[in-house]
Amino acid sequence: MLSKADDYPIHQTPEPIAYAGSDRNFYDRYFFNGYSADGELYFAAALGVYPHLDIMDAAFGVRIGDVQYNLRASRHLYMERMDTQVGPIRVEVLEPLERLRIAIDDNAHGITADIVFEGRSPPIEEPRVTRRHGPRMVMDFTRLTQLGRYSGWVRVGGREVRFDGRQVQGVRDRSWGVRTIGLRDPQPMLPVQPPQFHWFWVPAHFQDRGILFLVNEDANGDAWHKSMVVAHDDGRVEHVDGSTIDVVYQPGTRWPVSGSITAGDGLRIDLKPGPKFFMTGIGYLDPEWSHGIDKGPLAIGYDEIRTNDITTFEPPFIYAQAFAHATMTLQDGAVQQGLCSFESLSMGPHRTHGFTAFADGAAG
Q: DSSP 3-state assignment of 302?
């Protein structure tokens, strides 16, 4: 099956682009987030392609004040991976690795947008993620991450918000490879293990540089995937070794109320998270709109979350990003103030924090 992508010089195998190896869990995905300096506006968008399920889905969520508005869409792919539009949601590459556009066309739910991302840092290729459960590969993917600024507008809830790159900044990523998507396998891998995932991601903007920090830890609290990059505005990119994060949780939950990133060379970043954006709004862990689910030839969904009303740590609200203030103390003692998104997802056991169940929270 030839598709439009076959007319671009991007082949990686002897097969047409429509075929992505043999693993049904192969995916190819865009993600964006952005926030205003006061934290009043926070948005995120995603678009995913699942070639072996023949599905494409997308979502756009925006929080203004304490209301998060979520638009989701899914359609059959028909093996055309270059048509990156799902219902009213569209992602366009304006200038590869530099500028991309998120457009939300008119729809029945009253949420529209036209937003352009422009990179501040070069795209950073993170260490490849590989994770097995027994003999089965459950994660094998590459991700690029890029700090940037946004211009454009959003209309939702009877309001219009216009902004430019001096007002709204954030990050975007692209990832592709293998991770669990669509319906779960009815026959679990042996030995059966409880679900477990413990993750922090902190892309941060400061005066003359950006920081990209991430860590995955297993049930014993040992890091199996970790990276920290400092991207300077003068073009220098530093890969920093020995980074760690310490987190204090809201009692009874796994939502961070503070955090501190340190690196072996004396760099320190203190984090103070504020309002949350719940990732269920763009499909993560959502029971009805999880990624790769067959919703038919075309389906569109909408809901709203009163974020201040979410006080119990339970699915689907365990996965969140928080708008956060960041204070960076450099090796020479100089201090810079910045802003970031503080993403956390913790489920299942984690010995360091004393978690033993799927979603038990921190002690008070």
A: strand
Q: Each residue of 135-148: b (16+ CB within 10 Å) or e? A: eeeebbbebebbbb
Which pair of structure tokens corresponds to residue 325?
Answer: 């203030």
Token duo for residue 149: 């600024």
Q: Round to whole Å and give the CA distance between 275 and 200.
A: 17
> What contacts 362, CB < 8 A, 6 or more positions away?
249, 250, 251, 252, 253, 254, 353, 354
Q: What is the DSSP secondary-structure string of 92-112?
A: EEEETTTEEEEEE---TTS-E
Domain 27-184+193-347, CATH: 2.40.370.10
Higher pLDDT, 170 or 14: 170
pTM above 0.85, yes or no: yes
Domain ranges across the chain: 27-184+193-347
CA distance 204 to 269: 10
Three-class DSSP category at 166: strand
- Mean model confidence pLDDT for the chain: 95
The strand ranges marked E within 254-297 are 256-262, 268-278
Backbone angles phi, psi at 151, to 5 degrees: -130, 155
Give the Cα separation of 54 and 50 in Å (integer).
6
- What does the pLDDT read at residue 136? 86
Q: Which contacts of 3-8 are long-range, i.e. CB under 8 A and separated by 24 or more positions?
A: 3/79, 3/80, 3/81, 3/82, 4/80, 4/82, 4/83, 5/80, 5/81, 5/82, 8/82
In tens, the pLDDT along 194-229 reads: 899 999 999 999 999 999 999 999 999 999 999 999
Sole residue written with tokens 């918000």: 161
DSSP state, residue 242: S
